[in-house]
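Researcher: Structure for this, please.
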Amino acid sequence: MKIALVAPLYEAVPPKLYGGTERIVAYLADALVDLGHAVTLFATAEARTRATLVAVRDQAIRLDPAPLKSDLAAHLSMLHEVRCRAHHFDVLHFHVDLLHFPMFEGIAERTVTTLHGRLDLKDLAEAYWRWPQFPLVSISDHQRAPLRFARWLGTVPHGLPANLLRCTTTPEGGYLAFLGRISPEKRPDRAVAIARRSGIPLKIAAKVDPADRAYFTHVIRPLLDDPLVEYIGEISDGDKGGFLGNARALLFPIDWPEPFGLVMIEAMACGTPVIAWPCGSVPEVVDDGITGRIVHDEDEAVAAVAEVSALDRRRIRAVFDRRFTADAMARCYVDLYRQLLRSSDASRRLTA
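Model: Predicted structure, token format:
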């Protein structure tokens, strides 16, 4: 198959530091190439990929030092380029939310749109009612809840390259890990409270977006004075294996409808158990008592810190290998692409 993958332009593909969507697009592109498909990736020039790259911007928007820049203009320019080349592809797979809908209405039957974010925002439902012809893919079943009426083609969980992170059977760090982003919905304050009550050090590897700067300054920074808490900042992919693999557990104390939670499967790839609240996708990702514990309050989380030490880290990795590899993700998408094309061919025959 000839497949176009259209990535957001906010981060490199894969990101140099924090970033979820662009990371998944990178893994998917390489896995599809490995399966023998002809893949073209529309992304920034920094992309590292085995696909054919069409560079539509010199560098990722977030780390671009230019003081004035337009993310909307950059994405519209990219979509124009994709539209001009659309006839070269069997499937156009978008990862830019619904930005492409007006421009691709005429060929919606050859598009797949994976939605990576939360879908309970004001105005979204009305927009998806306006463009019901676009086939959508969710990254968890729970993510679909606000848009049950939409044209869902399937659910495909995220996946990582099998050789990206190795299983650490004997962690050396003796600490709890928090990895991701400092924001109210991610609840790093809960992570600190759990560490304090458990008496176990906490290492926080997370970025702070400008929108969350005040929250970090007024709520989180004062908590970092505790000698049990160490703030590392953003880390790269190369640092994740050691950071997660040597942790006693990953804390995922979220307070929002998480669409997927990539960090959970990154921890599982390292054999590291996950302690998480049952929000959004969490019950679909974490097998309670096998790959971690799903808890409902701080007391249960503190108890889980002791309990997860008994979990078999090789078994956690085995679950990752079975459910969350990039190869498994790519094969699921190929099945959906074929389903879409069969439906499109049948529709054309009926109208011929």
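Researcher: Any notable elements?
Model: The chain has eleven helices and 13 strands. Residues 192 and 295 are 16 Å apart (CA to CA).
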